[in-house]
Amino acid sequence: MKPVTVEKILLEFDPEQGNILPVLKRINAAFGYVSETDAKKMADYFSVSLSHIFELASFYSLIGTKKDSDIVIKICSGTNCTVQGSSCLIAEVEKYFGIKAGDEFNPKVRLEVISCLGRCGEGPIMMVNGRIYTKVTVSGARDILENME
């Protein structure tokens, strides 16, 4: 099987502006993010400005514009998760890694506080590299972090 390239992805779509979002999604799925180089190729292909590509990409939280950290932890801060103790989970993860939620200084690990994962009855929710953990306690969070693959 031939490796996927941005050029191959672009050629799957007509150069119409309505196809920019599907291309962003495909590039993100293939490479984990949309780099500036990829965005420039898209801008040329679709005959739009580079800022237009990044404007669309940054609007959608599931499309990354930077290479992800090795470990990405997301903790829900929705009402039910907060009532169930998600702020304690956030504090535990910050302490464990010596980071602060939202900081992007550590290339190895990033902690994001997100508004909702849609599993309100199972809170607090913690996601580590896409794997969802439900009803997480502080000691449970520590166990998850210590046993990451």
Feature tags:
single chain, 149 residues, alpha+beta, Glutaredoxin, 2 domains
How does this model look, in words?
Helix 3 (36-46) packs across helix 4 (50-59) and helix 6 packs parallel to helix 7. The protein folds into two domains: 6-59; 71-146, Glutaredoxin (3-Layer(aba) Sandwich), CATH 3.40.30.10. The chain is an alpha+beta fold. The protein has seven helices and four strands, in the order ααααβααβββα. A four-stranded mixed β-sheet has the order 2-1-3-4, with helices on one face. The protein has helices spanning 6-11, 20-31, 36-46, 50-59, 79-83, 86-97, 138-146, and strands at 71-76, 109-114, 126-128, 131-133. The model has no long low-confidence stretch (mean pLDDT 92).
Topology readout:
Blueprint: H1 6-11, H2 20-31, H3 36-46, H4 50-59, E1 71-76, H5 79-83, H6 86-97, E2 109-114, E3 126-128, E4 131-133, H7 138-146
Parallel strand pairs: 1-2
Antiparallel strand pairs: 1-3, 3-4
Helix pairs in contact: 3-4, 6-7
Whole-angstrom Rg:
18 Å
* Total beta strands: 4
CATH class of the largest domain, anyone?
Answer: Alpha Beta
What fraction of the residues are assigned to beta strands by DSSP? 5-15%
* CATH homologous superfamily caption of the largest domain: Glutaredoxin
Average pLDDT number: 92
Query: How many domains make up the 3D coordinates?
Result: 2
CATH architecture label of the largest domain: 3-Layer(aba) Sandwich
Order of helices and strands: HHHHEHHEEEH
Our measurement of the CA-to-CA distance between the termini, rounded to an integer number of angstroms, reads 28 Å
Q: What strand order characterises the main sheet? A: 2-1-3-4
For this structure, the CATH topology of the largest domain is Glutaredoxin
Structural class: alpha+beta
Number of helices: 7
Percent helix, as a range, is 40-55%
Quick one: overall form? elongated
